Amino acid sequence: MQGNVLSVLVDNHAGVLARISSLFGRRGFNIDSLSVSATNDPNLSRITIVVSGGGAELEQIISQTEKLIETRAVFLVEPSMGVQRELLLLKVAANESNRASLREIAGIYKAKIIDLSPNSMIFELTGEPEKIDAFLQMFANYAILELCRTGITALQRGEPTYQLKERLLP
Amino acid sequence: MQLNGSEILMNVLLEHGVTRVFGYPGGAVLNIYDALYHYANKIEHVMTAHEQGAAHAADGYARLTGKTGVVFATSGPGATNLVTGIATAYMDSVPLVAITGNVGTALIGRDSFQEVYIAGITMPITKHNFMVRTVEELAPTIRAAFAIAQEGRPGPVLVDIPKDVSAATAEYIPVEPTAKKEIDLPDGYLMEEAIALLASAHKPLIYYGGGVSASGGGDALRALCVKADIPATHTLMAAGVLGTDDRHNLGLIGMHGNLTTNKAVAACDVLLIAGARLSDRVALNPAKFAPKAKIVHIDIDPAEINKNVRADCALVGDVKAILRVLSQKIPAIRHDDWMRQINDWQANDYQPADDSNTLKPHQIMRAISRLAGEDAVYVTDVGQHQLWAAQYARHLKPRSFITSGGLGTMGFGYGAAIGAKLAAGNRPVVHITGDGSFHMNLNEACTAVSYRVPVITVIFNNRVLGMVRQWQSAFYGKRYASTDPHRQTDYVKLAEAFGLHGYRCANLAAFEAAFAQALQSKEPVWIECQIDKDERVLPMIPAGGTVDDMIMD
After folding, report:
1. B127 contacts in A (CB within 8 Å)?
2. Which phi and psi angles does B528 have, rounded to 5°?
3. Of B140, B301, B305, the CB nearest to A170
């Protein structure tokens, strides 16, 4: 099941990520992925969290997160109303014999080859998580040496619809 | 004017009307205590035996007065000793500002002597916490701490101040504390929906909790009960919001509530929940809680709505303001059949048997209420005595039953009673404890003696850990693992060693005589009541059960 994507705007303070993760840990909410980034407002950071719970649990996750003093807005990025992207870096064992076929896969998925060494290559791919999952399936018969994914980052389409809570902290 | 950080702290406390703080000094708060020395005529510092006692004292003070309690502690162990006290306040939504010192900013993160990351430790047990990095941030941070502790659903806030920040100087400009924000009423259609539900009910019931007490909504609640003829049951946190003698007040709900209240929950067709959070001690089985009822839930904290039990109508806002509007707009109704049904249940409810030869817990509690009078403040520890106090004391005033309901902190009572008594004036403050809880923090006797705080401590001594033993008896085949410690404590001698007077009683007449003397005393007193180790708290619904599983004898 695809998780729900929450966009959380928080005061840009040291420790705010610890507060969010402490809350999720304490309440037993599961995080599928989490990414933190700066925003156009230097006072705000955006934490994008993918959670697997739905229904009543999702409602609790939102209202408990909203309660944190440093949380300024929490909203669900509905798939139909937003765009979601994730970045993959993938290191695969590669040599002269299979390099061409690997390049063919990369070409079809529009992945970039960003590093090449005698025995390995690194791909970079950006896209929706499903695309990245599909890309990774192509490597079933290759030796994946390492990989990392950033987790989802997401924005709503069109004008922002959320309202920021009043800032409480000095 | 230019002041150092510690003087700024004193001035911001004074801005917020703080005249008494509780705490314990140490290396990292030397600057702050030096300022306390200079401000001693404006801010009284009460030094306890242990920081935990100080935290509970600030908590008890806050619960009695409704003001924000303030506690000071040094870095490292001083700060960690506050943790249980802060968590206790957090679970019961008590406004508390904890000020800890820390090592200087240059030493932070280097495992310096008495350094601990108290902001990290207390993150899940505070509404918010701060580490102040510069003296310029100090005043606005302390002001924010008070605002956060008091606004919305109250709770504890911790401010960690490194030693160099409390020494550095900055410009201090006094600021009037901002008035508490008015909280909007819920949308009109929701209020109408709630009124329509209540007005159409045949068997309405109100279940009220600490939120009614915190918001000062007792009178509004009573008005609603009387006008619409609705019976009400309360949580441990709300004893005294309605009087024990009020016709509509059925008493305690939940695990150790009575048969009537729990039957009423099972039978009601509309349940109005006011300022309560449906914990596992009330909604023991959330799926079977009030199964026939439409639920209207009032709370100031939106996260409480649908957390444990789903509401059909949610009213988020100030409980008092909402209750007042409900009581004004609801039509006057009678529920004679429903009240008759309830009276029938009450006639057949659990009744403990009196005994003139031995001391019975309910008789002790009733004697205390009779002798201490209408102004009495009860402060409990945690265990059997706590429930007996809830069940059998006459609760007549709000903020007068002070107990650790959420966290269930054994050892809470003595510190909390001292804090409460310091704010209670001539009102008698009775600390109800058990021998288990009392052993945890009885060291605070020295505080009561030093400051001549005439708390009356009544020790229900059954020589075992009664509540745990009761569970072992009911659910663990009477295998009494570590609940009979064979302690040989002589409370009368120990009281004398601390410099206070102790009594030992084995029957009711002796207890009444001792308690009457204690009420006249200007000093703290202990009264040991020897009770049977097989005394139980009844009735009882086992964890996860319903009223059908209730143990009555």
Report:
1. 69
2. -90, 125
3. B140
Q: Has residue A23 been placed in a domain?
A: yes
Q: What is the block-wise mean pLDDT of chain B (553 residues), using blocks of 10 residues? A: 97 98 98 98 98 98 98 98 98 98 97 97 97 98 97 97 98 91 93 98 98 98 98 98 97 97 98 98 96 98 97 98 98 98 97 93 98 98 98 98 98 98 98 98 98 98 98 97 96 98 96 98 97 97 96 92
The whole-number pLDDT of residue A1 equals 46
Instruction: Give the count of beta carbons closer than 10 Å to the beta carbon of residue B287.
Output: 9
Do B437 and B508 lie in a common domain?
A: yes
- pTM score, whole prediction: 0.96
- Output the six-digit token pair for B298: 């009032």
CB distance B302 to B320 below 8 Å? no
Measured between beta carbons, which residues in chain B are less than 8 angstroms from residue A168? 144, 147-148
- Considering the domain architecture, whether residues A133 and A65 belong to the same structural domain is answered as no
**A170 or A43, which is more confident?**
A43
User: In total, how many domains does chain A have?
Assistant: 2
**Shared domain check, B473 and B381:** yes
Residue A40 — left, alpha, or beta (φ > 0 → left; ψ -120 to 50 → alpha)? Answer: alpha
* The predicted structure's pLDDT at residue B84: 98
Residues B338 and B444 in one domain: no
For residue B135, give how far its alpha carbon lies from the nearest alpha carbon of chain A (Å). Answer: 13
- In whole angstroms, give the CA distance from residue B466 to residue B471: 9
| Amino acid letter, A109 | Y
- Average the pLDDT over A132-139 and give the result: 97
User: A78 and A9: one domain?
Assistant: yes
What does each C-alpha distance from B111 to B51, B92, B115, B239 come to in angstroms?
22, 33, 6, 46
Which structural domain, as residue segments, surrounds residue B405?
361-530
- Based on the domain organization, do A36 and A71 belong to the same domain? yes
Of B120, B301, B306, the CB nearest to A59: B306
Is 0.85 exceeded by the ipTM? yes
Q: Chain A partners of B302 at a C-beta cutoff of 8 Å?
A: 63, 66-67
Question: What chain A residue is nearest to B121 in terms of C-alpha separation?
Answer: A22
Query: Do the domain assignments include residue A32?
Result: yes
Q: Nearest-CA residue of chain A relative to B143?
A: A170
Q: Examine residue B47 and state whether it is found in any structural domain, yes or no.
A: yes
Range(s) of the domain holding residue A127: 83-149
Which residue of chain B has the CA closest to A63? B303
Task: Report the residue of chain B nearest A65, measured CA to CA.
Answer: B303
Check residue A168 and give its pLDDT.
Answer: 78
* CA A92 – CA B478 distance, rounded (Å): 63
CB-based contact B528:B461 (threshold 8 Å):
yes
CB-based contact B364:B391 (threshold 8 Å): no
Phi, psi angles (nearest 5°) of residue B294: -80, 135
Q: A117 and A70, same structural domain?
A: no
Q: How many Cα atoms within 13 Å fall on the side-chain side of residue B221?
A: 35
Same domain, A71 and A103: no
In A4-108, beta strands by DSSP E = 4-11, 31-38, 44-51, 71-76, 82-93
Q: Are residues B205 and B279 in the same domain?
A: yes
| Chain A interface, best mutation among B8, B123, B125, B126, by max A CB count within 10 A | B123
d(CA A113, CA A127): 15
Q: Which residues of A are less than 8 Å from B141 in CB distance?
A: 170
Domains held by chain B: number: 3
Phi, psi angle pair for B502, to nearest 5°:
-120, 145
pLDDT of residue B21: 98
Last residue of a domain, one of A60, A82, A104: A82
Active-site residue list of B: 51, 113-114, 163, 467
B136 touching A, CB under 8 A? no
- For residue B154 the two structure tokens come to 């109250």
